[in-house]
Write a structure and sequence with these properties.
211 residues; binds zinc ion; six-stranded mixed β-barrel; elongated; alpha/beta; nine-stranded mixed sheet; 19% helix; Barwin-like endoglucanases
């Protein structure tokens, strides 16, 4: 039996209503990294420009050519990359595994929400700096461009479940927070612990699902 025009129309309407469930979301795994204020950057790299090594997908974010060493009560981590451009606050984003190795109890937070977070010592070839706050474990999130968010029926702060398919570690991740911005590009950001959990590869995609 063929679909009637009315059935077909209803089918199309339901697909549009659930458009967000059909979109393939590229998944990006963020390694540990550092954001700095211009003030803090100048202490670590006085007189040295921050050069772009690789452009990132969101806004004007880029991976810089500058590396630092992070020092915590239990250990240190070398060659941690600074992301540019400089921001209004200094923030260090670690995975839980990184935080544990450094001996730092960091909370899971969205970028920019650093109130009450622990500090850390940062060493460069030219100087060092002790921050009294700024260490977070980045909360997994999905960047959505403003017009795309309207089309998909998504809004900032919304929590969704995402299915990430991989050869042997397909997983559903709950508590993925939607972040909407004019200069965002559709992309999900997870950290290295989460990337390992779902067997993420460079071409991994996620889909929003209704459980
Ligand atoms: Zn992000």
């Amino acid at each position: 039996m063929s679909l009637s025009a009315a059935n077909l129309q209803n089918e199309v309407i339901s697909i549009i209503a659930d458009l967000k469930n059909y979109i393939k979301i590229p998944v990006g795994v963020s390694n540990k990294h550092v954001h700095l204020t211009q003030h803090d950057y100048d202490i670590l790299f006085p007189g040295e420009p921050m050069n772009m090594k690789k452009k990132l997908n969101q806004g004007d974010d880029f991976a810089s050519d500058k590396l630092v060493t992070l020092v915590g009560p239990k250990g240190k981590m070398e060659n941690v990359r600074i992301l540019g451009p400089c921001r209004k606050y200094s923030q260090i984003e670690l995975s839980m595994t990184d935080a544990r190795a450094l001996g730092i109890k960091a909370p899971v937070r969205l970028s920019g929400n650093i109130e009450g977070t622990p500090g850390i010592k940062i060493i460069s070839p030219h100087g060092e700096l002790t921050l009294d706050r700024g260490v977070i474990i980045a909360k997994r999130h999905i960047h959505v461009q403003t017009d795309d968010a309207k089309l998909l029926g998504l809004h900032s702060g919304q929590k969704v479940v995402v299915k990430i398919e991989s050869t042997e570690r397909t997983a559903y991740l709950d508590d993925c927070e939607i972040r909407v911005g004019d200069d965002f590009t559709l992309e999900m950001h997870i950290d290295t612990d989460e990337g390992n959990t779902v067997g993420a590869a460079p071409d991994s995609i996620g889909r929003i699902v209704n459980l």
